[in-house]
Amino acid sequence: MWGAVFVAIAAAIGNLLQGWDNATIAGAVLYIKKEFKLETQPTIEGLIVAMSLIGATVITTFSGPVSDSLGRRPMLIISSVLYFLSGLVMLWAPNVYVHLLARLLDGFGIGLAVTLVPVYISETAPPDIRGLLNTLPQFTGSGGMFFSYCMVFTMSLKESPSWRLMLGVCTQINILLDSNCLSEY
After folding, report:
1. Whole-angstrom Cα distance, residue 13 to residue 182?
2. Are 54 and 104 in contact (CB under 8 A)?
3. What SS3 state is found at 123?
4. Rounded to 5, what percent of the chain is helix, strand, coil?
5. Closest Cα to residue 118, out of 135, 106, 140, 141?
6. What is the DSSP letter of 129?
7. Cα 21 to Cα 62: distance, rounded to the nearest angstrom
8. 45 touches 108 (CB < 8 A)
9. Is there a contact between 17 and 173 (Cβ–Cβ < 8 Å)?
10. pLDDT tens digit string along 111-165?
11. Which of 60, 157, 61 is closest to 111 using CA atoms?
């Protein structure tokens, strides 16, 4: 039973990242807008926020059938890799177009995680605690939002807040998901 609990907690980190990302971009976009001089380009500003959701929507349309053939765990590993790479690209992004591409990759990773984590937990959990364990993705997603807003608020108090650092923290949290997905339970 404890193995199933550990698997559920490890898998739910994917939803924590989704909540973290959604909340972080809300604060980071203020500083992204300044750096890339987007004050007169509200469409691009909106795309920065929406690109992750677009990517998640696109990938969820076929994540079920693909995970049926490849397996849930390999798809969660792919999700983690996509999320990690998107974080690195966002940290490096020399212009807004590269940043938009990174946000799209970010959405692919998030879409896979949010779609597959509840299924993976349901398939690995014993029937008597399956419902309980399936509350973890929602809980960790909300927790990710809360902690992200706290981090963004704290960083915003600095003289020159770094949106790259705000978004880069996600990459560090993703290492937990990578290590948990890659280890055998």
Report:
1. 13
2. yes
3. helix
4. 85, 0, 15
5. 135
6. T
7. 22
8. no
9. yes
10. 999 999 999 999 999 999 999 999 999 999 999 999 999 999 999 999 989 999 8
11. 60
Residue 18 phi, psi dihedral angles, 5° rounding: -65, -45
Tokens for 108, please give them.
Answer: 């692919």
The Cα-based distances of 104 to 6, 47, 54, 58 in angstroms read: 30, 10, 7, 10
Contact 20, 170 (CB under 8 A): yes
Q: Are 171 and 87 in contact (CB under 8 A)?
A: yes
What's the rounded Cα separation, in Å, for the pair 18 and 7? 18
CB neighbours (10 Å) of residue 121? Answer: 23
The answer to whether the predicted template modeling score (pTM) of the entire model surpasses 0.85 is yes
- Amino acid letter for position 57: T
Residues whose CB is less than 8 angstroms from the CB of residue 58 and which lie 6 or more positions away in sequence, other chains included: 107, 108, 111
